[in-house]
Design brief:
The chain is mainly alpha-helical. It is built from 5 helices and no strands. The chain has a single domain (about 25-130), classed as 3 helical TM bundles of succinate and fumarate reductases (Up-down Bundle), CATH 1.20.1300. The chain has helices at about 25-50, 60-70, 70-100, 105-130, 145-149. It is elongated and about 85 Å long. It is found in: Membrane.
């Protein structure tokens, strides 16, 4: 092949194989698995909150207090939060890798998405597991009697 010959576009490109885990493959697998689990978690969440019982009329502060009193629902919501945020961040990472051509800009954006997702996961997890309906309740609050018992 001479220097003025163009290679066949359908011929495989010989790239050296990188050592270590194939992170793109595992990211692809994660997106498929987390998507299936998220469908179950989200529809379960919607059913319990909007269909079961009195439907949407039941959702108020007392409903949230009762729901977060159960470790089952705490873990359900935290799992939904973790999977959704990691799923979304991985999707954003893929979009950034596909469309941002400048290496430095791509790196900054991927780090920004990663830090934002990590911060929201941490904050959301703290909210779910440290939720205290009696925090800051005063005597003139409608929650005063509930929090005294």
């Amino acid at each position: 092949m001479t220097s003025d010959t163009i290679a066949d576009p359908r011929s495989p490109v010989a790239r050296p194989r990188r050592r270590g885990p194939n992170l793109e493959k595992w990211g692809w697998i994660y997106m498929r698995l987390s998507g299936v689990v998220l469908v179950v978690l989200i529809f379960g969440h919607l059913f319990v909150n909007l269909v079961a019982g009195d439907g949407i009329r039941q959702i108020d502060f007392a409903f949230v207090v009762g729901k977060y009193a159960s470790p089952f629902w705490q873990w359900w919501d935290v799992l939904m939060l973790w999977l959704a945020l990691i799923h979304g961040a991985n999707g954003m990472r893929t979009i950034i890798n596909d469309y941002v051509t400048h290496h430095g800009t791509r790196r900054v954006l991927v780090w920004a998405v990663t830090l934002a997702a990590a911060f929201l996961i941490l904050l959301g997890t703290l909210v779910v597991f440290t939720f205290d309906p009696c925090l800051g309740v005063t005597q003139d609050s409608s929650l005063w009697d509930m929090c005294q018992g």
